[in-house]
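tool_call: predict_structure(chain=1)
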Amino acid sequence: MLIELDKSIIERVLKKLKEIDKEELSNNHVVLLPDFFVDHFLTISELERNLSKIIKIYHRGGGNLPGISQKISQGGNAANAALALARLGFSSHLICRTDKLGLHLLEYFLGKNGVDISGVKTDGKLAITTALEFGKKRANVMIGDTGSVSDFSFEILDEKDRDLISKSDMLCVTNWTLNQNGAELAKNAFRFAKKHNTKTFFDTGDPSPRKNEIPDLIKNVLTDENLDILGLNENELLHFSNIRTSSIEDIVNAATALKKKIHARIDLHTANFACTIDKKCIIVPTPNIDKKYRSTGAGDAWNAGDIFADLLGFDNDERLFFAGCVAGCYISSAEPVHPGLNEIIKFIGKI
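tool_result:
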C-alpha cells in the first residue's frame, strides 16, 4: 500500500494556522498527568569501541571514560506533551508527584515556558531516566528509576486538581506502563472528567513490560465509554492486537480490528504514516525529515499536535498532518526545544 500526500492538506493547514488568533489560544486548557522524569542523555557514537573501553575500565577496577556527550532535559510523556502544548500557545497544566528538587527542575524546564505546575506534589521521589543513544540513527536504550511515577493514583488528586480537570477542555493520562496504579488512575480520572464534559485522551506507553496485564487494561480502560481518544504508536498497537507483521496494510487492519472492540477514536502514528480510525479510516503520510537529531519525545510532540488540532476543530487529515509536523519539527531541531506556531509554519512551508 502506497500513501501519497494530498498537497491540498498543506495549503489548508497553513491557511488555518495563519488565521489563528494567538491571543485566544490560551483559552484552551489541557490537564496532563502523571509523569515527569529528568532525562539524562548520553550520546555514544561508536557502540562497540566504547563498550570495549567500558569493559576494560570495569576489569581494572574503575576509571574515567571522557568524551561522551551528555545533556539533561525534561522527560516523561505528560511533561513533554504539556511543554509542547504550552509552546503552541495552549494553557497546559501538569499534575504529577516528585520531590523538591524535581519542582525546581520543573520550574526551569516547564514553568518558565508557560506550563502551569501549581498542581505538582513535592512529597514524593524524583523519577530519572538515563537514555543511551547509539550511532547515527540515535537508537536508544533507556534505564529508568520511576520514582513516584510508579504509584500515582486518583486519590492523590486534591480538590483543586479535580476542579481544574472539571473546567478543562481535555484530560490526558499517560504512561500506564510505569505506573502500577495506571489503570485505576485512568478509569477513575476519565469517569470524573466525562461527568464535567471534559474530553479524554490516553497514551499507555510501551506496554511490553506488562504484556500479561494487557487484557485487563483493554477490558477496564480501553473499552470504557469514558475514553474519547486512544493515542498509540505502531509498537503499542502490535501488543494490543497480537500481530507480528509491519506492512502498512497489516498495521491499518490491526488498528481497525482494535477499533471494533473499543468506543474511543484511535489516533495512530508511525515513522511512515499516521491514521485516525473512528467512523472511517483516514491515513496521512509522515512528513520527510532530512536530518533527525533524536527519537526520544517524538510521540509526545505528536500527541500535543494531535490534541491541539483536535480542540481547534481541524479536519481529520489536517489534524494528522499537523501532528506529524509538530513531531517532525521537534526531532529535526538541533536543540530539544518544542516548536511554536511560527516554527511549525516555517517547517510546513519547506515541505
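agent: The domain at 7-36+76-126+148-349 is CATH 3.40.1190.20 (UDP-N-acetylmuramoyl-L-alanine:D-glutamate ligase). Proceeding to next step.
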